[in-house]
Write a structure and sequence with these properties.
The chain has about 400 residues and is of the alpha+beta class. It contains 14 helices and eight strands. The radius of gyration is 30 Å and the shape is globular.
Length: about 400
């Protein structure tokens, strides 16, 4: 039994480190695994350089043609991630596939490693425990399944943090080169880490454990960022591509139970994201913009804690922007009590929203300000021309 436990746990640092790398980027990790495995099979890399090289050599992806295909896909995804626009498209069509592949590889990989260890160690264990090896095998198989579930949990938590960091880099895209720099840095760091996970698994597993601890502490923050990105950026893009012209209902078909318990019947219920850091809401936290009984509220039901309700009494403005629709109070102030954003899916019924909530159309205010500014600028230019013409006339007149 002790031998079996030792055999089972010997490869765990490598498996753990690879799962961390796969959480950061499944395509990069799989490409490196396929490349190293195929080079080991070809004799380019000596087996003594890589611990557990036999396992890598027998991987189904340890073939040169598979490596080339994965390399092309990884390179293509990296190129698409260099600009913010192409990265959003890439997230829509490739990220879900990559996440599914990564999760399957993480779960199956750990299960196979532990199961194969059980198979090879079974004869020794069977002899050592005098005929009780079948029970040992059953226990280790259950342990393998448990470890596979743990592998998925590790993958999910780490992937959530990495995706949130990618989104923050994307949201900083107005700064030239930030998205490209973030993508290139990610590829280099993940590539180096996965290689070290194969060559020096113990050190890599310690680094991975530190990263995983940080990911656990930042999990709720990461989930808020991802939910904001999907509903504000990705879903409108999908709607535009596949359901262009669709009008989003002002009351969702599946009303949140917390909203129904708090308000009963509502006239309008919109998903918005609060953009201020306050004691009531976190920045980019999902809440509901509600009209009930001719009164307007921002509402949020926390998982652990009482519901938070803010009644809107001040003048509230709505501004249609390029990325989203802004709803805010305290126009012109340095700090706004209420500042939330709404998905661009509601562009088709924006006038109805303004009417239902008695909002002030801030775009009209901006247009009027621009018109006044243009008129004032034109008047200043005309006044300058008149003064210049008068001076020229005054200088030329005496000479005549």
């Amino acid at each position: 039994m002790e031998y079996l436990l030792y055999s089972l746990t010997a490869g765990l640092p490598t498996a753990f480190a690879i799962i961390i790398g796969m959480s950061c980027s499944p395509f990069i990790a799989l490409t490196i695994l396929a490349g190293v495995g195929s080079l080991l099979n070809m004799g380019v890399i000596e087996p003594g350089v890589i611990p557990f090289s036999e396992t890598l050599m027998h991987l189904p992806i340890a073939q040169m043609n598979v490596f080339i295909i994965l390399l092309i896909i990884t390179t293509l995804k990296g190129i698409l991630g260099l600009t913010s626009a192409s990265k959003i498209i890439c997230d829509v069509f490739l990220d879900k596939v990559e996440n599914i592949i990564g999760a399957i590889c993480a779960i199956v990989g750990v299960y196979v490693i532990t199961s194969v260890t059980v198979v090879y160690a079974y004869p020794i264990t069977d002899a050592a425990v005098n005929g009780n090896g079948i029970w040992t095998s059953l226990v280790m198989t259950i342990l393998s399944l448990a470890m596979a579930l743990v592998a998925y949990a590790i993958y999910f938590v780490m992937k959530t943090l990495i995706f949130a960091i990618d989104i923050l880099a994307l949201l900083a895209s107005p700064i030239p080169g930030v998205t490209a720099l973030a993508t290139i840095s990610k590829y280099v760091i993940v590539g180096i880490y996965v290689w070290h996970a194969l060559a020096s698994p113990r050190v890599s597993s310690i680094i991975g454990l530190v990263c995983l601890t940080a990911a656990f502490f930042l999990f709720r923050w990461s989930r808020r960022i991802i939910l904001y990105y999907r509903k504000i950026y990705l879903r409108p893009l999908l709607t535009m591509i596949f359901r262009n012209g669709r009008t989003v209902p002002l009351v969702p078909k599946k009303m949140p139970k917390s909203v129904f318990r708090e308000f009963g019947t509502v006239d309008v219920c919109l998903e918005v994201f609060f953009m201020n850091n306050t004691t009531a809401f976190h920045k980019r936290e999902l809440c509901y913009f509600i009209k009930a009984d001719d009164k307007h509220y921002l509402f949020k039901k926390r998982l652990l804690g009482k519901a938070i309700t803010i009644k809107l009494t001040d003048d509230t403005y709505l501004e249609k922007c390029y990325r989203f629709i802004r709803i805010f109070t305290d126009e012109g102030a340095n700090y706004r009590k209420i500042h939330a954003v709404l998905s661009r899916e509601h562009n088709t019924n924006i006038n109805t929203i303004i009417s239902e909530f008695n909002l002030i159309n801030y775009n009209l205010i901006l247009e009027e300000r621009r018109r006044v500014m243009v008129e004032e600028t034109s008047q200043k230019i005309q006044t300058f021309k008149n003064k210049l013409r008068s001076k020229i006339t005054h200088i030329i007149a005496p000479n005549k």
